[in-house]
Write a structure and sequence with these properties.
Shape: rod-shaped
Number of helices: 1
Radius of gyration: 26 Å
Structural class: mainly alpha
Helix content: over 70%
Order of helices and strands: H
Biased composition (Basic and acidic residues): 22-35
Number of domains: 1
Region (Disordered): 1-43
């Protein structure tokens, strides 16, 4: 029995080459970027809550 032949780089499609090389890098950077954006969004939400509560309190007391 003979071994199955391995594909050469020239036989692989461009998509397969690009996908195997680039996809893992994109996932890592995408994850770290989305994590930072979530933290920023949470900070903004907290700031908006504080401003709204402060405004409502001042408005109701005056």
């Amino acid at each position: 029995m003979s071994r199955p032949k391995k594909k050469r780089n020239s036989e692989l499609s461009e998509y397969e080459d690009d996908d195997s090389d680039i996809a893992p890098k994109k996932e890592k950077s995408k994850f770290s970027g989305s994590e930072e954006k979530e933290e920023e969004k949470e900070d903004l939400r907290n700031n908006v809550r504080v401003y709204c509560y402060t405004f409502c309190t001042v408005y109701l007391l005056s």
